[in-house]
Structures are given as C-alpha cells and as structure tokens.
TrEMBL record:
It is a multi-pass membrane protein. Its main location: membrane. This is Heavy metal tolerance protein. SUPFAM superfamilies: ABC transporter transmembrane region (SSF90123), P-loop containing nucleoside triphosphate hydrolases (SSF52540). It holds the Pfam family ABC_tran. The chain crosses the membrane at residues 20-39, 54-81, 93-119, 131-148, 168-194, 273-293, 313-337, 387-407, 413-432, 504-522. It is found in: Membrane. GO terms for molecular function: ABC-type transporter activity; ATP binding; ATP hydrolysis activity. Residues 223-236 have a biased composition (Acidic residues). The keyword Repeat does not apply. It comes from the Eukaryota. Keywords: ATP-binding, Membrane, Nucleotide-binding, Transmembrane, Transmembrane helix, Transport. GO terms for cellular component: membrane.
Length: 878
C-alpha cells in the first residue's frame, strides 16, 4: 500500500482529474444526445444503414459489467482493509474511482435509453453512438496509460497489491470492449440497427444504408437536400441537386478540372509568388517553435540571476516576426494579393462565360436572383483553397510540432493528454458541424428564395403597380424572410452549442496538462522555466486549436455555399459546335426547313414534319394562333435548340455543321420586346457592330427614323436608356432595334411580332423602316397583324407545328380558309374600332365576301370600286 500512496502522491492531480472528468464528459454527451434526439425530426427517408442492436447491446453490457466489477472489487477491498484507507491520499483515490464507475455506468444506462427512444421514434442516432464510443475509448485508454505509467515509474510492478492488478485488468478489458465497439461502429461492419414489429420483421425503410458509398465531407447524406416551401426553378434539376457533388471526392475532382482557372499555370511570376508565400509559411512554423523556447531561456536566466538581455532581445525579435500582424504574415499577405486577384478574376470570368454558353432551355427556367446569389457564393471556392493553405496547413503543422516537442521534453503522458484533447476537439467540432450542415443548407436555400423574391419584385415593378400587388409582394417577402430567420435562429443556436462544447474540451485539456507539468516541477523533474514554456506553447496552440473549429465551419460553409455553383458549372451545354464545324458565310442565303420535328419536353411536338423554303432575297411570313410554333421556328433557326428530326440548312449546309457564332452573324433579329442594356443609346446601337463609327451610327439611326428623336434628348446619343430600356417608349426601342439590325448588316432578317405592341400610327412609321431594312435581305416575319405582312412573297399559316396553308396574300384569301377567317376577324375588329377600313366585306358585289382584296389607302375593293391612284398596283393593296 505504501507503493500506491507514493504513486498517488506523485500524480494526484492527473489521476483524480481524469477519474472525475470521464463521468462528467460522458454524461454531458448523453444529455446532448438526448436533446438532439428529442428536437430532431424523424428521418423523412430512412434509407440509412442501421447498426444491429444485438451487437450494441452486448458491447454496452460488457462495458457496464467492467464498471460493476471495478466497483465491486473496490468496495470489497475497502471493507476488508479499512485501515489502509485511513490514508487520505488512498481514500481520495478510492472515492474518485467509485465516482468514476458510478457516473460512467449512469452515462451508459441513460445512453441506452436514448438509443432505444431514437429507434422507437425512427430517428438517426448513428453518428451520436459513434462519437460516444470513440470518446469513451479515448478517455479510458488515457486513464489506463497514465495509471500504469506512474505505477511503473515509482515501483516494481511485481510488488503491487492484487487489487491493483485487478483494477488494471478490468480497465484493460473495458478499453478492449470499447475499442471493438468503436471499430464496428466506425467501419460499419454491422449492417442493420432496426426496430422490429410484433412479427419480428424490420420496420419499413430501416434496412438500407446510413451513408452513401462515398461518405461525404462537410455534407449530409441525400435526405438533407434543400427543403423549401416555395417552388423554385431548381425543381427541374432535383436529380442534380441530390447528386453527391458536396462530397470531398467529387469536389476535389471538380477542382482538378478547374485547375487552369484556380492556379496560374501560365504565369511564372505568380507561381514564384505562391512558392515564396509557402516558404514564409514554413518559416513561420519554425518561429512559433522558437518563441516559447526562447521565453523559457529568459526565465532560466532570471532564475539563475544571469543576464537575460541576449535571450530577451532574441525573444522580442522573434515576436516581431510572429503572429497575424507580424512581419512574415504581412509580407505573405501582400505577396498573395496578386494571386487572389488573378484567381477571382479568372473564376468570375469562367462563371460568366459558362452562363453565356448555356442553352436557352436553361435560361428560360432560371431565376436571376438565385443565379446572382449563387455567383456571389461562388467566392467560397477561392476562400476554400486560401483557408486550406494558410489556415489548415499551419494549424496541423503547429499541432504536430507541439506534440513532438511535448513528447521529447515532458514525456508520453503529456503528449497523450494534449493529443487526446486535440482529437476530441476536432472530432466534436466535425460531428456537431456535420449535424449543422443540414441547417446551413436549409439556411442557404431560404436565403436564395428571399433574394429571388426581392429581385423579381424589382424586375417586375411595373406589373406590381399595374395590379396594385404591393401588399401581396410584401406579404410574400415577409413570409420568406420569416422562414429564413427561423432557420437562421437554429443555425446561430447550434453555433453557440458548438462553442460551448469546444470550450469545455479546451479547458479540460489545459487543466490536465498543467497538472502533469506542475507535478513534475513539484518533484524536481522539471523547473519553472519548463512550466512557462509549456503554458506559452499551449497558449500558442490554443489560438489555432480554437481556429480549427472555425476553419472547419468555414470550409463546411464554403462547401455548402459552393455546392450550387458546382452544380451550375456542371450544367451541360446542350448546343455545342462540332470539332469540324465550318465558319460559314454568305450574302445570298437560301433557308430550307426539311421535315423538321422538335419538342421542348415529352409533352408533345412543338413542330411536326415542318417543311418550307425561304428563297434568297424574298420575304416569308409566318402567321397562326399563339402557341402554334412560330417563335420556335426562329429559335431553331438561331440554333438555340437542335432539331429532333429533319434538318435546317442554309445554302445546303446544315446548321449543326456550322459554328454558332458564324451562323448568328448571318442573322439580324428584331424581337417583339426589344430589351436594351442600361447603358447609353450609342452603346446599344453599337451592339449591332462593335467597331461602328459615329457616322455609321448616325446613318443607321436616320434610316430607322430615330436620329431626330435622339437629338431631342438632353444627352443625345449618350442618354442612358434605363433597365431593359424602360426610359424609352415601345416605338423608340423598336427603332433602335432596327438601327442595330442595319448596323449588323446581316443577310437574314427576322421580325418576331415587332409591331404587335405598337399603336397604328407608330406601326405605320416602323413598317416603313422595316420595308427599307428588308430590301435585298432574306426575311422571315412573324406577325399577328395580318395587314403588316400582306406584301410578303409567301405567307405560311402554321397550326400545331405544321404548315396548313401557304401562298400569297390574295391566294390565301381566295382559299377562304384559316387565314381568310383570321383576316376577316381583324378587318371587322378594326372597322368596329373606328379605323380607316370601311365595312364593305360582306357588301361587295364584285368579289363575293372574303375574296375581296382591298386598297390599303382607301379600303375599297380593288376590283372595281377603288378609285385611288394606287389602283391596279397589286403590291400596294391589302
């Protein structure tokens, strides 16, 4: 017993602290687990691997048995050898062992209840069970090694009392059981941990994997995808959202593909700067090692009454180079600025280029607000690598250096304590942060929705005012913001919980480590200088150790934030140039649609076996009801989509064999709604020809009858047009579109209902400009107002994606078919509205109804009653 007393006097702090710490930490974990199980919702998709309950039961009972055996042996020895325990040191040790056994047994008992409750409620507790067993084995192993180490140091183990052999044997058995359980849980050897029904069958949905085949880094498994209460355009990409893009493997694979964007391979200067920064990083690690050692030398000089000035000067000089404000860090940060700017510029340009190269199908489904938010979050990719290089690597290096120094300077016990604390800190940080990942993902989703509503409201300001929908939009935004704040509250609260857990572990590590060093100082094995070195080193480690959790959270945030950007960058570009695509050019285009079939989705064909030609220099008009496929024809001609069947050719060359830029340079288009950039009028005009001179711009504006109007503005051609041209009228925007098309001087002209939103007078003025613009060009016109296409060489009536009628204006009227019926409705409507056309359609005795061809000037029948100067000129009648 004297040996025991000697050993206990040598290390009362370490042994007692460890004995009392184990039950406290285990019960804290149990309370945390119970709280998590209680507040977490049931698995919506319990397609997870569950651990077989029989294995967990056997392991738990084995561990509990070791605690009961330890407790029983202690009490028996206490009652048999009462006189021994009159020694206060031995009694204090015995009491700590009893508290350890009872407290740990209670933790395992309540932990079993938490597991049973979680299984009953179908809640995921696998990560909690893993962490509980891993932390238990670390704590018990630390206690075992510490106890054996001190007993060996002070006595020959052959003379130890039998009770000590019993305690060591029981403790070893406990560690073995916990190690086996931890290995099974971590490796996932067991396949099911399920709840059974009354017939012995597994409950539904509880017999499939817990984790994906590749465990994800910084992300939860599939069921933690974005959950939103508002339908998003991303709904069409759910399959992509659920892909394991957030996994570290997939993430790093994508990063490798972006290597040319993220690493300046073509710039030796930037590469040299990068290696210089890495060298400064390594020097900084060496200085961090020297600082506490040098301070220890100063203390040694003071203790021996020697002159401390030399060592003090070196210490001050080292501190001048150390830290975030030290010379090394400042030089490193300044040297890294050009690399950061290069990476940011390249990444932003890459994303912008990728967006412009995506197909129209993507852009018709996207939400501008969400895309902008995703691009903002894309900065996380650059932050990830900066944190990896300048935060993770230095932290890991400092920890490894510290552990090595502690091992050689203070022995294995202190190194084991510090290593255990660091492992626990990192493991708990990762565990809780993974739990927070789903909350963070939901937080980002709700934030995107809020931003999208805000942006949509600004883009649709006019519509909101037209329908007095301010209250509705404010209600939508308020509801979305409340949903966002509800998730934000959970994210912030879980962060505070994480900080508390980290602080408990750090304080426990400082207490245990300081106790070991103080014990060495008290025994004369160490001096006060070494205590100062240890505390200084520990203080240096505290900052990166504390930052370790923040770094992991930041990396996890970067991974989550960049997840949608990675999905965006992974969006497939549907329309691509062939490797041998030709840069086709012609001034005499002949367009041919040959049995073209196309559909946007599986709902049905938008175009079905469509065939027609547009001869060189002629005008073909497409008319028909809305949704008949007219605009689709122009989209296919521009090759925003590829045909599903048939072909579209220009002078016999298939569009799919042309370079897209070459094809689109052949075509000028004037859309129904001409969207302009929020720049000057001159900027928007030069979009037709970026190297146009001022004289060419003025000439095009005059031809479009817009020059005088532009000069009436205060800033003339430098007048900003507002968002999408909102400061200009519809007619003014159309004239700018005409001038832009004139500057482009393309051989193919497309007019997509270019006058449908204009009044009659403006339409006539614009029509005159159109006539001049289409001279000598192959022209395709889409129109609802049939009077605007009466002069077309060929009119095609499109219905359900097919051409059902074709011919000249007069020929189609003579057919008395769909075109004639549409013409009749429009003529009658114009007459009823008081327009210039007289109501003679049914009164003409010369033409018998709808076959009547009327003068565009006087409205009378050209066959007999028309007496104006234009009579007899078929091209001037409609």
């Amino acid at each position: 017993m004297a040996v025991i007393a000697i050993g206990l006097r040598a290390a009362p702090q370490v042994i007692l602290i460890t004995r009392y710490t184990i039950p406290i930490l285990l019960n804290a974990l149990v309370l945390f687990g119970l709280a998590r199980v209680y507040i977490s919702p049931p698995d919506p998709q319990p397609s997870r691997k569950r651990y077989r309950r029989v294995w967990l039961f056997v392991i738990t009972q084995s561990v509990l048995f070791t605690y009961f055996a330890d407790l029983l042996a202690s009490f028996l020895h206490f009652f048999i050898f009462k006189s021994v325990y009159r020694n206060p040191v031995i009694y204090e040790h015995w009491l700590a062992l009893v508290v350890h056994c009872i407290g740990a047994s209670a933790a395992y008992a309540f932990g079993s209840l938490a597991i049973a409750y979680a299984v009953q409620k179908n809640k995921n507790i696998c990560s909690y069970v893993q962490s509980f067993y891993i932390i238990s084995v670390i704590l018990e192993l630390s206690l075992l090694i510490t106890w054996i180490d001190y007993l060996k140091f002070y006595s020959d183990t052959k003379h130890l009392p039998a009770i000590e052999y019993a305690h060591i044997a029981i403790q070893s058995l406990r560690v073995i059981c916990l190690a086996i359980g931890s290995a099974l849980l971590v490796c996932g050897v067991t396949t099911t941990f399920v709840r059974y029904d009354s017939h012995g069958n597994a409950a539904p949905g509880e017999n499939s994997p817990l984790l994906n085949d590749s465990i994800q880094y910084g992300a939860t498994s599939e069921d933690t995808t974005d959950t939103t209460d508002t339908t998003s355009d991303d709904d069409t990409h759910d399959a992509k959202d659920k892909s394991p893009s957030a996994g570290m493997g997939a993430f790093m694979k994508r990063m490798y593909q972006l290597g040319d964007v993220l690493w300046p391979r073509g710039s030796p200067r930037l590469q040299t700067l990068a290696f210089f920064c890495l060298l400064l990083l390594l020097v900084g690690r060496y200085i961090n090692l020297l600082v506490p050692i040098q301070l220890g030398k100063v203390v040694e000089d003071l203790s021996s009454y020697s002159s401390p000035w030399k060592h003090l000067f070196i210490y001050i000089a080292l501190r001048f180079f150390q830290g975030s404000g030290g010379l090394l860090q400042v030089v490193q940060n300044i040297a890294w600025i050009p690399i950061t700017q290069w990476t940011d510029r390249n990444m932003s340009t890459h994303c912008f280029t990728h967006l412009l190269n995506l197909s129209l199908a993507f852009h018709t489904h996207r939400k501008t607000g969400e895309i902008l938010r995703i691009l903002d979050k894309g900065q996380a990719l650059n932050n990830f690598f900066q944190m990896l290089l300048f935060s993770i690597f230095p932290t890991v290096a400092d920890i490894c250096v510290a552990l090595g120094y502690f091992y050689f300077k203070f022995g294995g016990v202190l190194s084991l304590i510090i290593a255990s604390v660091m492992f626990l800190y990192g493991y708990i940080s990762v565990l809780i942060t993974r739990w927070r990942t789903a909350q963070r993902r939901d937080y980002v989703a709700k934030d995107n929705i809020t931003r999208a509503i805000y942006t949509d409201a600004l883009l649709n300001y006019d519509t909101i005012k037209y329908f007095t929908a301010e209250a509705h939009e404010i209600s939508r935004y308020t509801t979305a913001f409340k949903n966002f704040q509800a998730v934000e509250k959970k994210v912030i609260a879980s962060l505070y919980l994480l900080n508390m857990a980290q602080n408990v572990i750090i304080v426990s590590g400082i207490a245990a480590g300081t106790a070991v060093v103080c014990a060495g100082v008290a025994q004369g094995r160490s001096d006060a200088a070494e205590l100062i070195v240890f505390l200084t080193f520990l203080q240096q480690l505290y900052v990166p150790l504390n930052n370790l959790g923040m770094i992991y959270r930041s990396i996890n945030t970067s991974l989550v934030d960049s997840e949608k950007l990675m999905q965006l960058l992974s969006e497939h570009t549907d329309i691509n140039d062939k490797p041998n695509a030709v840069a086709f050019h012609t001034r005499q285009p002949l367009i041919k649609f040959d049995r073209v079939g196309f559909r946007y989705d599986s709902s049905g064909y938008a175009l079905d076996n469509l065939s027609f030609k547009v001869p060189t220099g002629q005008t073909v008009a497409l008319v028909g009801e809305s949704g008949s496929g007219k605009s689709t024809i122009l989209r296919l001609l521009y090759r925003f989509y590829d045909v599903d069947a048939g072909s579209i050719t220009i002078n016999g060359v298939d569009l799919r064999d042309m370079q897209q830029h070459a094809l689109r340079r052949l075509i000028a288009i004037i859309p129904q709604d001409c969207a302009l950039f929020n720049e000057s009028i001159a900027f928007n005009l030069k979009y037709g020809k970026d190297d146009a001179t001022d004289a060419e711009i003025v000439s095009a504006a005059k031809a479009a009858q817009m020059h005088e109007r532009i000069l009436s503005f205060q800033d003339g051609y430098d007048t900003r047009v507002g968002e999408r041209g909102v400061r200009l009228s519809g007619g003014e925007k159309q004239r700018i579109a005409i001038a832009r098309a004139l500057l482009k001087d393309a051989p193919i002209l497309c007019l997509d209902e270019a006058t449908s939103a204009l009044d009659t007078n403006t339409e006539r003025e614009i029509q005159a400009a159109f006539n001049e613009l289409s001279q000598g060009r192959t022209t395709i016109i889409i129109a609802h107002r049939l009077s605007t296409i009466a002069k077309s060489d060929l009119i095609l009536f499109v219905q359900d994606g097919r051409v059902v009628e074709s011919g000249s204006h007069s020929h189609l009227l003579s057919l008395n078919g769909m075109f004639a019926a549409m013409w009749k409705k429009q003529v009658e409507g114009e007459t009823e509205d008081g327009d210039h056309l007289p109501k003679l359609l049914n009164d003409c005795s010369y033409c018998s109804g709808v076959t009547c061809s009327r003068c565009s000037n006087c409205g009378k029948c050209t066959s007999k009653k028309c007496t104006c100067a234009k009579k007899g000129n078929e091209d001037d009648h409609s």
